[in-house]
Amino acid sequence: MGCFDMRPSLAGLVFSILVASIVAGCAPVGANYARPEMRSPSEFRFVQEPAQAQSLADLPWWEVFDDVALQTLVWEAVSNNLDVRVAAARVEEARARAGIAKSFLYPQVDGTASYGLRVS
């Protein structure tokens, strides 16, 4: 029972692993190191010819999903959106209606006042 505790602490163990990693990472590769030659294959799998390749950016986004309901909704939206100002007014109306619907969540204050004159 001496005054020094000889058990290794977790901090000391982590510190020694960190120092060993740094020293090993800075070691030189060697004077006779030669970079290995990388050979690329002549053909890759699943590659289409440039004439056959078609990008998703070339297609209208609603046709990418191949959904009849989505295409119907898009065409209905395009046909009913005749004016940008009308659409902006509809957005403002929806925001106002949402504000009215949310107003019941807040406390409400009521008050009355009256004035009377009594002549005797």
Give a description of the structure:
There is one protein chain. 43% of the residues lie in helices and 0% in strands. With 120 residues, the chain is mainly alpha-helical. It has a domain at 59-104. It is flat. The relative contact order is 0.03.
How would you sum up this structure in a few lines?
The chain is an all-alpha fold.
Give the arrangement of secondary structure elements.
Blueprint: H1 10-25, H2 61-64, H3 68-80, H4 84-102
| Average predicted local confidence, pLDDT | 79
**Low-pLDDT windows of residues:** none
Count of beta strands: 0
Distance between the termini: 105 Å
> Largest beta sheet, briefly?
none
Shape: flat
Cα gyration radius (Å): 38 Å
Provide the β-strand percentage band. under 5%
Elements, N to C (H/E): HHHH
Please tally the helical runs, counting DSSP H or I stretches of 4 or more residues.
4
